[in-house]
Amino acid sequence: MSVEIELSIYVFILAGFLGLELVQRVSPLLHTPLMSLTNAVSAISVVGAILITGEGGASMLSKILGSVAVMFATINIVSGFLITDRMLKMFKKEGKK
Amino acid sequence: MAESFWQFAYLIAAVLIILSIKWLNSPATARRGVQAGQVGMLFAVIGTLLRHEIVSYEWIAGGLVLGSLIGAPLAYLMPMTALPQLTALSHAFGAFAAALVGTAEYYHKTPTGFVMGALVIETLLGYLTATASVMAFGKLQEIVPTRPMTYKGQNFVNLLLFAFAIVLAGWVIEGSAPAWAFPAFSGLSLLFGVLLILPIGGGDMPTVIALLNSYAGMAAAAMGFALNNKLLIIAGALNAASGFILSVIMCKAMNRSFTNVLFGAFGQVQQASASAASAKPVRSASAEDAASILAGSRKVIIVPGYGMAVAQAQHKIRELTDMLVKRGVDVQFAIHPVAGRMPGHMNVLLAEADISYERLKEMEEINSDFGEADVALVVGANDVVNPAARHDTASPIYGMPILDVDKAHTVMVIKRSMNPGFAGIDNELYYSDRTLMLFGDAKQFVSEIVKELPKAA
Lengths: 97, 457
Known about the structure:
The complex is a heterodimer.
Chain A: H1 3-24, H2 31-42, H3 46-54, H4 60-90
Helix pairs in contact in A: 2-4, 3-4
Chain B: H1 5-23, H2 30-49, H3 58-77, H4 83-109, H5 113-140, H6 154-174, H7 181-197, H8 205-227, H9 230-253, H10 258-263, H11 271-277, H12 287-295, E1 299-304, H13 306-311, H14 314-326, E2 330-335, H15 345-352, E3 360-362, H16 363-366, E4 375-379, H17 388-391, E5 410-415, E6 435-439, H18 442-452
Parallel strand pairs in B: 1-2, 1-4, 2-3, 4-5, 5-6
Helix pairs in contact in B: 1-2, 1-9, 4-5, 4-8, 5-6, 5-7, 5-8, 6-7, 8-9, 12-18, 14-18
């Protein structure tokens, strides 16, 4: 196993544990916003989509699949964040308008 | 320096994404969390665009612009009540993107060994989550029947197909697979998403949506392994953990296991028990009666369920709450973890109607209060208030934690008819002599109570 792969596995495991800790502390009140925020974050795959579309020597197939992927991931990111924010705007305490 | 800018950008993006989830833990900092997430994502995109591997921008720009043009109206035009569907749909796009990247990688680089393994997982989870999310969208939008669809030997057929997919995947990883193997594998992954959702009923959607969220995170992390990109691994792992925890919470709230949710086909109509029960007498009451009881009480606990969402009754309930509070009544809301169609669904709807989140109580917090409540008003909830879950070992929902509404002095249940709820189980609560059934559409009935309340002494 190469050092790079080993490192990646460490990162994955640590980030996973961090995620478990963080999410357990989120109040059930905010579970829907949490879902929609992480939904937006999962579209981080836009990074891979951009790379495959724009890199030197990309084939026509790569460009087509890649740019569709960029578009789809962007839809996910934009709608995910906007919905989350729209939702959170509604959470108010008594008397605050 | 310019060469390594993207690495800094990725580092900042990773930190911001972690902070965004951390800040989501309380309503006070939650919006800051969203902003952190947005900026983090921006850093990820800009950092990537500046990498020296990127030589052409036209195709990328096209994708980014079109995606924003479609994504923004999607978020603003959908009504707030369509939230679960919207999340599922948005999810389908993201997962499909991950799968397409995997496919493009496969044809462009045809990697081997570990990278190929990661790529296969990415593609499998991406395609599977995409079609499963579309199916979930269909069920939530009620384009696809919400009842579980089952047939004899369903699990066996699924298992067989899965085994076939695993063989194909192994072959592709090993490197000597023919040209048709990868497309066939992709097709099977797409098919799986559909098969996975078919036997799942509407009431199990909170668990399933959370689980799909987890899969999408796994797909992103697998992409990170394939591209050797730590940012993708971190964001993907966070996401996978989040979806996993939420689905575990949902399962616990129903006292069921993962396998039971995924393969149990819960919520099929149980004809026999439903028809046998309808002979028992129930007490019903008018809006006028309900108003006078509410007017005379000191403590009222409202229990919302999916029926409130369907009837769009939350704004009328707010009016009712305001009037009662003005009369000096203590009004609180009891929220069951699986009420509605996604985790936290009721909280969002009540927040939409401007009800303070301080009035919304979780199950553990409020259950001991029912004994002191004069009235428990159940609006469109059914299985989560069924006392059979506590004592009837034969009941399919036995052992599920419920809201103890039956301990309140008077229970009022707003319900359209005596039809059993999602789980198809009769609810003994309705036949209790403490219970008054208020038959009608939730929105209409609550507004009648609101009209009658000022007349009540």
